[in-house]
Amino acid sequence: MMKIYEYAISLLNPATNAMVANLSKRAFDIDVSIDALTFRIRALADEPAVYLDNPPAMHAIVRRSDGKRFVFRVNTPALETNNILLFECFNLIACLDDDEACVQWSTMDDANWLPVGKERVSNRAEELHEFGSECPSIYPKKDERFSIGFIGSKALQVPSGATRKQRVMQCDFEFRAPTNWTGVIQRSDAAFGFLARILTITGSGAGAGTIVNGALCEAFSDTDIISMDLWYDAALALYTGETGDVYFRIKNWRVAASSANMVNTVTTTAAITAGANRTVTLAAMANVYVGQRLVFESTTTATGAVNSESVVVKSKTATTFIADFTKNHAIGSTVKGIVITDKEIIEDALANLRTLNPNCGLSAAKMLIVNSGEDQEERTWINESYRKLLDDLAVDTDYVYGVDREGRLYYRPRGTYARAWASSRTNITMKRPLDKLYNSIRAAYQSAKGVLVQTAYSTNSVSTLLYGITRRKTVKVDTTNASLAGAARTYALNDSKNRNAQIDVVPQRLTDMSGGVYPLDEIEPGDTITITDLPASFSETNLRKFIVAEQSIDASAGTGTITPQEPIPTVEHYLANLTDIGPAQDTRRIR
Question: Among residues 22, 378, 485, 549, which is most buried (max CB within 10 A)?
Answer without folding.
Answer: 485
